[in-house]
Amino acid sequence: MSGVSQRKQESRPASARQRLRSETEPQFMSSPAVTGLLRVDAGLSTETVTATNPPVPRVVSGIPLAYRLRTLLGTPLRNRVARSRQRFLKAAAADCRGIQETVLQDLLKLNSGSDFAKDFGLRPGLSPQQFRSQVPISDYELYRPYVDRMLHGETRALLGRRNRLLMFAMTSGTTSSSKYIPVTSRFLSDYRAGWQMWGIELYRTVPGLPHLNVVQIASSHRRSLTAAGTPCGNISGLVASMQNPVVRSLYTIPAAVADVSDADLKRRLILSLAFGDPHVGMFVTANPSTLLQLFESVENDPEQLLRDLHDGLSDHVTIPKAAGRRLRAAVRPKIQRARQLQQLLRSTGRLTPRDVWPNLQVLACWTGGSASAYTSRLREICEGITICDHGLHASEGRMTMPLAAETSSGLLEIGTHYFEFLPVAEAESANPDVLNAWELEPGSEYYILLTTSSGFCRYNIRDVVRCTGFHGDAPLLEFLHKGAHISSITGEKISESQVVEAVRAAQAGAGLWTAQFTMTPEWLDQPGYTLYVDLRRQAESTQLERFASLVEQQLCDRNEEYREKRQTGRLSAIRMQPLPESAWQTLQQTRLNKSGGSAEQYKHPCLMPDPEFRRIFLQACGLTHAPTRYTHL
Question: For the chain, how far is it from start to end, CA to CA, in angstroms?
């Protein structure tokens, strides 16, 4: 531990730290899925933060006997995972440091003998301090030459002899070129265990959920092959393809749907399968915007869905001979279900999730960072249904596991990767005080550094997180934004999370809701920011002007430097520019085509710091001229 971090720890009273440990552990060890989350502020006081009017679990009814028998068959597996979760929570609370130091040694041993390990002098037995002195903090570019060799079959470039490569996870990251993240057997095992420990608490605490089906929207793990024949794609597709038969029967969407390349056809398949299943208890996907797009597409054109259900999609899909019977059944007509939904549409005028799936209990998606911009609309459409964040995770690995519903804060998964933390305030320092997981300060913000079984060491994923408290000695973290998404024209340092919070707060006051938005710096007569919005509904110019004014006020409240720059006239007022829905769709497809990412993986940028982005943005949207802007005086 460096001198600075030692002083930080000494400044925290032992009695307060012990109180924090004893108060936090019992609550989280027995926390049900729908509870409050203990947060700890920088002053070490504690308070219980609960969701505003948390949804009441719905009474489950009409469960088929076959599903109840399936639940019975799955009991041993659920019990085994539940025991693993309890062991992990107990160990994490008691010995965060010991677990992390053991993980580091395991990873050094796993990939010893790789060319990367030889180049940087890595070997089992190195202390954490020695490890830090051997490997610099880095991003993907340090590993690109090694990964490029792996793409051609040289797996020993990054991996040890016993570390078997399964696939490459492709991710767009924050640059235009794709990144290839090695997924090994150890990596996959850790990844699946994290998901299982998160999900088992829902199955334990949400009434009837074990009897119900899950709609999971995943992407293919075989979108392409390397020169050596290794699959490249999304790890979610690999996990789906490896499920055992009992687990696979829980999922409404067959794994083969992930391999459908036509985006519109895939959407119609997912809709037909999901709406064709009356026994859905949970939706799982990464981005809440994916769920919104599905639900709103049905709201805008329910007749298309009803036709697809009634007539089937067999004329639109070529089923390969190797496809399973579930995919073949999926494209067949569901006439009775179509009639049920047609009657519902006639009687209520809408096909709301609550009415379509009477037993729907949980929507599982990201709720932190820029994703929170979509949760208010999701709550509006899915009133009364619990929204659960499934943790901070990326192609590079899982990082946190939320211990309660209606919060994005989660326990650091200290048993899988070796974690280090770079304080945001010291990110530009030549000699930053890098901290261990057990050394974090509640209320402080950090970049996460990952050392993983994929061969990456001290890898800066550029995710900014805030420590919200502790479970024993293990930290609780919430995702704020990507570090790359910070904009500063004159020193104001606006973060993406501040923009998201400002727009969310302004929506209620203006009586408007934005389906999507992006803010970017712009130089006209005076430098400032333009907020591009997708309103979906017609709005009067006075409403738009008020919206721009409220966003301005909210941003000033959240960023003192921005407020000072506005008061001194160094920045102009925020301009707002509505764009049609089609423009945003074109933008998303353009970015995906450049990055090689998938629609489910797409992370919409709510703040783009590049001042040239406005020109690129409008061109990508298919607009040759800028529409009318709205601002306030």
Answer: 53
What's the half-sphere exposure (Cβ side, CA atoms, 13 Å) at 302? Answer: 17
Q: Tokens 């993406």 appear where? A: 496
Label residue 567 exposed, middle or buried (CB < 10 Å: 0-12, 13-18, 19+). exposed
Calpha distance 329→423 (Å, rounded): 52
Residue 330 β-bridge partners:
none
C-beta of residue 534 within 8 angstroms of C-beta of residue 561? no
**Measured CA distances, 374 to 15, 23, 118, 341, 513 (Å):** 41, 33, 46, 26, 10
Residues in the chain: 633
Per the CB < 8 A criterion, the answer to whether 250 and 214 are in contact is yes
Per DSSP, the three-state class of 469 is: strand
Over its C-alpha atoms, the chain yields an Rg (Å, rounded) of 25
Pair type for strands 386-388 and 362-364? parallel
Pull the structure tokens for residue 478.
Answer: 């919430």
DSSP element (H, E) containing 354: helix 353-356
Helix 65-73 vs helix 75-94: crossing angle, to nearest 10: 50
Q: What pLDDT, on the 0 to 100 scale, is given for residue 4? A: 38
What separation in angstroms does the CA of 226 have from each of 182, 239, 279, 394?
Answer: 12, 20, 40, 21
Closest CA to 390 of 216, 164, 209: 216
The angle, 0 to 180 degrees and rounded to 10, between the axes of the packed helices 372-381 and 288-300 is: 40
Tell me, what's the pLDDT at 520? 87
Ranges of residues in the chain with a pLDDT under 50 are 1-53, 173-176, 633
Q: What separation in angstroms does the CA of 287 have from each of 291, 375, 415?
A: 7, 10, 26
CA distances from 12 to 15, 269, 424, 595 (A): 9, 55, 20, 45
* Among 169, 278, 284, 265, CA closest to 215: 284
Tokens 């929507």, residue located: 363
Distance of alpha carbon 423 from alpha carbon 426, whole angstroms: 5
Residue closest to 217 by CA, chosen among 280, 298, 302: 280
| CA-wise closest residue to 502 among 562, 460, 564, 448 | 562
The alpha carbon of 66 is separated from its chain's Cα centroid by a whole number of angstroms, namely 33
* The predicted structure's pLDDT at residue 11: 38
Structure tokens at 302: 């329910």
User: What pLDDT does residue 127 have?
Assistant: 96
The pLDDT assigned to 319 comes to 64
Angle at 47 between CA 42 and CA 50, to 5 degrees: 125
Annotate 199-259 with DSSP letters as a single string: HHHHHHHSTTGGGSEEEE----S-SEE-TT--EEE-HHHHHHHT--HHHHTTBSS-GGGGG
Burial class (CB in 10 A: 0-12, 13-18, 19+), 348: exposed
- pLDDT score for 322: 54
pLDDT value, residue 377? 82
The position carrying tokens 């400044």 is: 11
Q: How far is Cα of residue 171 from the mean position of the Cα atoms in its chain? A: 13
Please report the pLDDT score of residue 598 as a whole number.
67
Q: What is the pTM of this model?
A: 0.78
Task: Give the residue from 164, 204, 199 showing the smallest Cα distance to 183.
Answer: 164
- Residue 11 has, within 13 A of its CA and on its CB side, a CA count of 12
